[in-house]
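Sequence in, structure out.
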Amino acid sequence: MDFITNNLLLIAVAVASGGMLLWPVVRGAAAGGVSAPQAVLLINREKAVVVDVSEPGEYAAAHVAGARNVPLGQLEQRLPEVVKNKALPLILVCATGGRANRALAVAKKLGYERAQVLAGGLKSWKDANLPLEKA
């Protein structure tokens, strides 16, 4: 017990640094979504449709090969015309995953039950060395 009371500051620093190391893991698990390799499997095996919800300028700079661009602000109006088959898996992508997570709620509301977010966004796609296109 004397050890704990004499070294309370060191213990607090150790616990805090451990928490900071675990935070990205916890945050990533909460964000959910499909990993880049899992997305490739869905695209190849189940003909998943990739929809990039970034703005047109960001989409033009770099996007997942074969992705269709529907900016988040236009998603509710344009998604049904871009992806007619609601039974296909839908993978939503943006730069980091933030907008895609918001788009997921819209897609689910429109009846795309198999909609998922690419975890980590376009950054995770690049990190996995998967093909990108430029418009």
